[in-house]
Specification:
Elements (H helix, E strand, L loop, with lengths): L1 H34 L3 H27 L3 H8 L5 H9 L1 H35 L6 H31 L1 H19 L3 H12 L1
Helix pairs in contact: 1-2, 1-5, 2-5, 2-6, 2-7, 3-4, 4-7, 5-6
Length: 199
C-alpha cells in the first residue's frame, strides 16, 4: 500500500511540475501571439484553444473506455500504431490524467486569459475605456460563449469517446507512431520499459 502511495505521489508531483511548465509556456505564447494580431484573429485563436481542450478531453475518456483486445489483433498483423494503442490503453489512467487534467485544464485557463486580451482589443477598437459598461458586456458575452463551447464540446466529445473509443485511440496512436518515427521521441516505448522495470 505504501509503495502504491509513493508511486501515486511521485506521479502526481511530476504531473504538477509538467502542468506548471506547460501552463507558463502556453500563456506566454498565447499572450505574445494575441498582442500582435487583430481581434478577429485573436477570437479564432481563443476558439482553437477551446477546441484543443475538447479534443484532449475526448482522448482521455476514450483511453479509459477502450478495450485493448482489438489492438492486439492489429499488432499481430503489424498494423502501424497498434502497439502504441495497446500502450495507451494499458496506461489509460496516466494518459487520461495528462489529456484531461494537464492539457484540458491548461486550455481552460489559457482560453480565459486569451479571452480577456481579446475583450481589451475589441474595446480599444470601439473606442471605449477599460471598466466601461460596453467592455463589461463584451467580457460577459465572450466568457459565456467560451464556457458554453467548452462544456458543450466536452459533452459531445464524451459521447464520441465512449461510443468510438477504439477508432479514436487508434487514430491518436497512429499520430504518435508517426511522430515517434519522424522525431525519434519514443515516448510510449519509454513508458512501457519503465513499467516493466517497476513490475
Amino acid at each position: 500500500m505504501d509503495n502504491k502511495l509513493k508511486k501515486s505521489l511521485k506521479f502526481s508531483l511530476s504531473i504538477a511540475v509538467i502542468t506548471f511548465v506547460l501552463a507558463a509556456i502556453f500563456s506566454v505564447i498565447s499572450s505574445s501571439v494575441l498582442s500582435g494580431v487583430i481581434w478577429i484573429i485573436g477570437l479564432l485563436i481563443v476558439f482553437l484553444i477551446v477546441l484543443t481542450g475538447v479534443v484532449f478531453d475526448m482522448l482521455g475518456i476514450a483511453a479509459t473506455a477502450a478495450d485493448e483486445t482489438p489492438f492486439h489483433a492489429m499488432a499481430a498483423e503489424k498494423v502501424k500504431g497498434a502497439k502504441e494503442a495497446v500502450v495507451i490503453v494499458r496506461n489509460a489512467d496516466r494518459f487520461a490524467s495528462f489529456c484531461n487534467d494537464v492539457i484540458g485544464d491548461i486550455s481552460g485557463i489559457v482560453s480565459g486569459t486569451a479571452s480577456a486580451i481579446v475583450v481589451l482589443q475589441v474595446t480599444n477598437v470601439l473606442g471605449y475605456n477599460e471598466g466601461s459598461t460596453v467592455q463589461i458586456t463584451i467580457s460577459v458575452v465572450l466568457t459565456s460563449i467560451v464556457a458554453a463551447l467548452t462544456v458543450g464540446g466536452k459533452a459531445l466529445g464524451k459521447f464520441f469517446a465512449i461510443h468510438s473509443s477504439t477508432k479514436i485511440i487508434f487514430f491518436a496512436a497512429r499520430i504518435i507512431s508517426i511522430l515517434d518515427t519522424k522525431l525519434k521521441l519514443n515516448i510510449l516505448s519509454k513508458a512501457t520499459s519503465s513499467k516493466k522495470k517497476s513490475s
